[in-house]
């Protein structure tokens, strides 16, 4: 193993997840304002931007997951960040609808190269026993980096709205180059070229991953939950900003500019998520890293339902924001707990592929659910947001349905 690839995998994971979070926040914080002000997108075009992104994720999630399982986790991650960076650059440099659509394809495909591959890589390198703590800790680093990225976006956005997007795109490509040099991969074994039958191997890997998803109750249920979440989330993710913009923002520091307030809102949401995560990790770390965390996940899912429904109904700016932040905090806390749980129920052979299947289920839900709810939103924003919340209501029960199965000596957990 070359010396330049001897970086500790946990530290590498923390660093690149933090860098990704910082750069993504820099690019996304003011993107909705950029779409309207600089690119002149109308509501329908904004929905199509989201649909294009999810279609790209849907079409490429499984193939890129198989690449990570068959060739290299590191290679998949490096390719992903290069494509994401190119998408950010294109979006920031060309404020036109078609260019923004093309950018969604680039960064959507890039994301699918990293989705599943990063978790599969760190799980292979450190073992499943340590992933729960590492995922929760990484989430905290990501939230701290997101705060820095949000502030950076707001500061640069006062100069030029596309500037933070362009700089984050260049940063993504630089991150990919650094990972190519320093990221080690010791516990993944590529199929030798002489034994490689690409299409047959891909088909077998996919079949194995599908079999895992069908036979193991935890994996199967998490796929269903991901699908339901997708049906709801596309409308909420695109329409919450539309509702917030219907309110009159107070003047602070001599400005009521939406760009300023969107930066503040993103910052507050991230600070709340980070503070809650740190508090729970200190007071009840065993719950966040539990081997069978269905109880805490059901509770967090119920809080998300309450947050979305309350946001849809409330007509006061600050109460609506409180509901939105409740939904954000609950979802942020649930993600690393669910990720660790999923990783404990798949083996290395198809880990990236199975994780990609879960992500693809979410993308399917967003593609199917987004446009109809967006159409409803054109006539009644409240009805679209309420429907989004109602769609989430089965998820707490699905988590609770996963009861710990009795284990016999020598058995592996498969529930």
Automatic annotation (TrEMBL):
Q: Which domain of life is it from?
A: Bacteria
| Topology in membrane | Multi-pass membrane protein
* UniProt xrefs under CDD domains: MFS
Per its UniProt record, what Pfam families does this chain match? MFS_1 (PF07690)
Location in the cell: Cell membrane
* GO CC annotation: plasma membrane
Q: What name appears for this protein in its UniProt entry?
A: DHA3 family tetracycline resistance protein-like MFS transporter
Q: Where is the Major facilitator superfamily (MFS) profile domain?
A: 1-406
Q: Which UniProt keywords apply?
A: Membrane, Transmembrane, Transmembrane helix
Give this protein's Gene Ontology molecular function annotations.
transmembrane transporter activity
Does the keyword Phosphoprotein belong to this entry?
no
Q: Where are its TM segments located?
A: 12-35, 47-71, 78-107, 161-182, 217-236, 259-280, 301-326, 381-402
